[in-house]
Design goal:
Blueprint (H helix, E strand, L loop, with lengths): L1 E2 L2 E5 L22 E2 L8 E6 L2 E9 L2 E4 L11 E4 L3 E2 L7 E10 L13 E5 L14 E2 L10 E6 L13 E2 L1 E8 L1 H9 L15 E4 L16 E6 L2 E10 L10 E5 L4 H5 L14 E5 L3 E2 L3
Antiparallel strand pairs: 1-20, 2-11, 2-19, 3-14, 4-5, 4-7, 5-6, 6-10, 7-9, 8-13, 9-10, 12-14, 12-16, 14-15, 15-18, 16-17, 17-18
Length: 290
C-alpha cells in the first residue's frame, strides 16, 4: 500500500534565507561512513574545553541540541560549516554561545525533556556549508521503519577516545516507535516489565541486531528524514545503552513533541516570519507491506 504523508514544517528562518532542509551539496557514528563535505550544512559542534556535543542550526542565531549537553558549567562555543572536527577550513566559523535554555522537565539523562535551545552571540551568514534544518509541527508522525540519517563527530566504538581530527560521520537507520523500543530494551533486562525505560517523548532508530548507531560525542545531534528532497529533523540524539548493541537502538528526543516549546520565547521570532511559521511539503511515497 502506498501511503502519502503530508509533513508540516515550522519555518524558523527569515524570508531572505535559503529554504530550510535543502543542502547545496548532495553525496551518508558506529557503523557509519564519512559524510560528503557540505552534505549536512545544519550540523554543528557544541564544545567546551573538555566536551563535545552535536546540534542543528534552525535559524541565523539559534541551535537545537540536547539538554544533557549543558549539565556542566563552561564557556560553550558552536562551530558551523565544519567537516573534520579539529581542523579549521575556510567554510567554518565558530561563535560564542550567548545563552542556552534547557527544557524545564529535564532533570537527568533518560528523563523527559532532553532538549535545549542555544542562542549564538551573533547571527551567522548562510552559505553552501551553513544552512538551517526544517523542524516538524506537532501533528507530524514519523512512522516506524522509515529510514532516516544521524550525523556526528562522535566515537566509532563505545568507550574509545575521540581522535584529534575526526571526519563527520553519517549512518542510515530505521525508526522505531517508543513502545516497541521500550519492549526491546526490556529483553534480557532485569528491569521490571512494568517500568518504563523509553519515555513517550522519545523515538528510537537502529536495528534489532545492532551494528549501526550514534555514540559518545554525537549527543545533541540531529536525526533527519527526507521528504521530497527536503530534510526534516525528527529527533535529537539523547541516550543509549552502550553503542550499536543488540536490542538497544539509539534513543532520540522526538522533535514534534516540543513544537510549542521551541516556538515560544525564548527565542523571539522575527515578525516577518509570522506568516511563514507553517508551510507544507508532500513527502515521498512510502511503501509498506501490510
Amino acid at each position: 500500500i502506498l501511503i502519502c504523508l503530508l509533513v508540516c514544517i515550522m519555518n524558523t528562518a527569515s524570508s531572505s534565507s535559503p529554504a530550510c532542509g535543502v543542502p547545496a551539496i548532495s553525496g551518508r557514528i558506529v557503523g557509519g561512513t564519512d559524510a560528503v563535505y557540505g552534505e549536512w550544512p545544519w550540523q554543528v559542534a557544541v564544545t567546551t574545553a573538555n566536551s563535545l556535543c552535536g546540534g542543528s542550526l534552525i535559524n541565523e542565531q539559534w541551535v537545537l541540541s540536547a539538554a544533557h549537553c549543558f549539565d556542566n558549567p563552561g564557556n560553550y562555543k558552536v562551530s558551523l560549516g565544519r567537516y573534520k572536527f579539529g581542523e579549521s577550513i575556510a567554510s567554518s566559523v565558530t561563535v560564542v554561545v550567548e545563552k542556552f535554555t534547557k527544557h524545564p522537565n529535564f532533570i537527568k539523562p533518560g528523563d523527559r525533556g532532553d532538549i535545549a535551545l542555544v542562542k549564538l552571540k551573533s547571527p551567522v551568514t548562510f552559505t553552501n556549508y551553513i544552512r538551517p534544518i526544517c523542524l516538524p509541527n506537532a501533528s507530524v508522525t514519523f512512522p516506524s521503519g522509515m529510514e532516516c540519517w544521524v550525523t556526528g563527530w562522535g566515537t566509532r566504538r563505545y568507550g574509545e577516545n575521540l581522535p584529534s581530527i575526526n571526519t563527520l560521520q553519517e549512518v542510515m537507520t530505521p525508526l522505531i516507535d517508543y513502545k516497541q523500543c521500550d519492549q526491546m530494551y526490556h529483553i534480557d533486562s532485569s528491569t521490571s516489565s512494568y517500568t518504563i525505560i523509553i519515555q513517550e517523548d522519545k523515538i528510537c532508530s537502529g536495528y534489532a541486531e545492532g551494528g549501526k548507531d550514534s555514540c559518545q560525542g554525537d549527543s545533541g545531534g540531529p536525526l533527519v528524514c527526507e521528504a521530497n528532497g527536503t530534510w526534516i529533523q525528527a529527533g535529537i540524539v539523547s541516550w543509549g545503552d552502550g553503542c550499536a548493541l543488540k536490542n538497544h537502538p539509539g534513543v532520540y528526543t522526538l522533535v514534534p513533541a516540543y513544537e510549542s516549546w521551541i516556538k515560544s520565547p525564548p527565542p523571539q521570532r522575527p515578525e516577518r516570519c509570522a506568516e511563514k511559521v507553517k508551510k507544507c511539503v508532500l513527502q515521498q511515497h512510502l511503501r509498506y507491506i501490510l
